[in-house]
Amino acid sequence: MSTKAIESLSEDTVRRIAEERGEPEWLLETRLDALEALETAKLPDVIQTPGRRWTDLEALDFEQLVDPLNQSDTTERAGGDDDVVVLPFTEAFDEYGELIEAQFGSVLAPDENYLTALSVALFTTGTFVYVPEGVDVEDVTVRAEMSSRSLFSQTLVVAEESSSVTILESITSADDDVDGDRYFSNLVEVVAGENANVQFGSLQNLDEETYTYALKRGVTDTYATIDWIESNFGSKLTRSDVETELAGDGSESQIVGTFFGTDDQHFDINARVWHEAEHTTADLVTRGVLDDVARSVYEGVQDVGEDAWNTSSYQRENTLMLSDDAEADASPKLIIHNHDTEASHSATVGQVDAEDLFYLESRSIDSRTARNMLVEGFFVPVLEEIAVDEFREDVTELVFERLQ
Amino acid sequence: MSSQDHLKETDTEARFEFKKEENSAFKSEKGLTEETIRVISEDKDEPEWMLERRLRALEQFQAMPMPTDWPEAPDLSEVDIDEIVPYIRPDIDVRGGVDDWTDLPDDIKDTFDKLGIPEAEKNALSGVGAQYESEIVYQNMQEQWEEKGVIFCDMDKAVREHEELVKEYFMTKAVPPSDNKFAALHGAIWSGGSFVYVPEDTTVEMPIQAYFRMNSEGMGQFEHTLIIAEEGSEVHYIEGCSAPKYSAFNLHSGGVEVFVGEDAHVQYSTVQNWSKNTYNLNTKRAIAEKGGRMEWISGSMGSKATMLYPSTILKGRGASDNHITIAMAGEGQDIDTGAKVYHNAPNTKSTIESKSIAKDGGRTNYRGLVHIADGAENSSTAVECDALMFDNESTSDTMPYMEINESKVDVAHEATVGKIGDEDIFYLQSRGLDDDDAKQMIVSGFIEPITEELPIEYAVELNRLVELEMEGSLG
């Protein structure tokens, strides 16, 4: 076993969670299987180079962080339209039990790693989003506020043939008196049916005593599109994995990421795409800023399978360093098994351009303001990729806050 | 270009893979034990300290795991050290290399004639060392360089004749045996290789070359190269390697250490054409002082699996590094190669250019690390990787790692992967070229930015090797 056993965790704990929520038998079994998987499951892979481990997940003390029976959150869910189902699982089982049973865990295996197994065994919040065939909705929002030591969230999105949905989730910390370190776990599965279009935006702004683990993965059917926007501003340490499996011919995915680290924040940001079918397209775009002694770690993977004829795959990552004590590590990876591919990636790390700064100062803008303008400008290429106005404004706002 | 006639030979068997009877004066047992190492050290009549270093490296080797936890690492499961003959001393009279090719036994002389080494020596080189199996058999340098104090001799001889220098630099500063399992293996059973010393402000105008030839089945070659370039000096070292193909595996695990003094300039060029049963697992590292400049130029064409990441530690202010890498993998080959650069001082600069070609089920991977330390301000690095793929049985990976601890830097990495453009082929065909010639021309163009950095003889050689590989696949 790769990490310390959590003594307070037993079969009994898991049964109590399931019972309190009135869950069907299959889900209890799934939770118990996940609990059992903890004995052998490993922590997610972390990049290692000679003498260095980019993120130290081993250091997480789950005995301290995990308090399974006292999870608490306030979550507002809105569908904006009667045709779409946006419910907590507990309210969805009666009507959509079979659909949930069929799709739950179909994209993310609960025993994939230690953190997913822990999350499936213990989740008490999250959302089921169901978009029936042909339905087109733009305003699904899920706003969650965490108010306990630990919180495990599980989300399942099922978008049927030719449907289209935009989902915005946000997670913040409540002003309450939980002292010390906290842990938030967020698993999201997206099933995009034929010709479906799912846009999933996420804004994480938890307080800086929280450790966050997010794993979001989608699978596309023929001609489907899954676009992700993953914005990370909060947390002490964030491990975020956003992934798309392009399983259907002609399917597409875009993964847009932003982060802004201050103080001693640590972001471990990962974007991955697997091209498994013909004529698929992927575009991975991440931009981040680091100030103070913040640190970022980025891995981007473009994996093109043997059968992925006529693939187009692009990746760009740029990190801007505002402080001399910050650190940025990056590893964009190409794994190409089919030659009928056009693939590229690029990554840069640098500071605010001295000439740009000089130009603005020569226009009598003070240097602090000039720098801030350039940082805001740095985010523009990713902001432009965000189609939802409200979300773009939220991100802009958070960037602005951090520059003050 | 009449001297290049031998390069026009199109049969790779005749060119590189011909075999000679095994004819050794001393051959160790298979496998690696303390006893083997004592026997090798004794046969070489080494000082006690070198034996001690070997034994310590052996301990480290035994304690270290195989590099199997790397993402997408080449399969080394076949590499069983107990099946390797680590040391074969060829049957020649003069230890440390004769300085006249005609003094060599016929089979060995014929080998190097076929490889074109004596011819190249006459035309384009300042000096040549030639290794056959585990030892240098020929060693010569033009007198004018000797007069200037340049030393170019075989490594075994250097241990005896330049003991203080070797003792100070040999696997102590650049490549300690603890670096990785194969560096430890190398430290335990190294044999042969070159020692190069270039005094202050001396420019060795024509390149010096070492050629490494493995002839016997199931052997391991572990030559060590140590280059010390003093302040303001300049030298270009070229190494070539090849072996005939056998059904059992061979192992090549060389060690290269380069010390680039203040404002010195060292270029290290390798054209590797090991047979496709050879595992090529090397550790090469340079340390560049203030204003020093290191260049690694590598062409990896041969071997079954290669794991090679020449590294440069930019230790002094204003030091610079330039990596140029070409890798080509055909059927059954896994060429995992790249570069490592540590920017440990301000104003340091590195550029890495990598070109790779994968075809017929082969795999190429660029695996590289650029580390910029805190305080290495005004440093810059630019990495560019381009890969060409011929078919969907092949694999082309790109795995760069960047660790940036300093904000006043300029860091850029770019990579592309693609197939040969149908339009390009169509255009060339419309100009009367057939499909094969068109593809060859496109590949030559693809690697040209790199071949043009090489001395003409080697550019021609590299191009010819690429053509041979292409014919193998297309013919």
TrEMBL record, chain A:
Residues 80-139 form the SUF system FeS cluster assembly SufBD N-terminal domain. Coiled coil: none annotated. Belongs to the iron-sulfur cluster assembly SufBD family. InterPro entries: Fe-S_cluster_assembly_SufBD, SUF_FeS_clus_asmbl_SufBD_core, SUF_FeS_clus_asmbl_SufBD_sf, SUF_FeS_clus_asmbl_SufD, SufBD_N. One of its GO terms (biological process) is iron-sulfur cluster assembly. This is Fe-S cluster assembly protein SufD. Residues 147-378 form the SUF system FeS cluster assembly SufBD core domain.
From TrEMBL, chain B:
Residues 1-31 are annotated as: Disordered. It comes from the Archaea. Residues 212-446 form the SUF system FeS cluster assembly SufBD core domain. Transmembrane segments: none annotated. Residues 137-209 form the SUF system FeS cluster assembly SufBD N-terminal domain. SUPFAM superfamilies: Stabilizer of iron transporter SufD (SSF101960). GO terms for biological process: iron-sulfur cluster assembly. Belongs to the iron-sulfur cluster assembly SufBD family. NCBIfam families: sufB. This is Fe-S cluster assembly protein SufB. It comes from Halorubrum alkaliphilum.
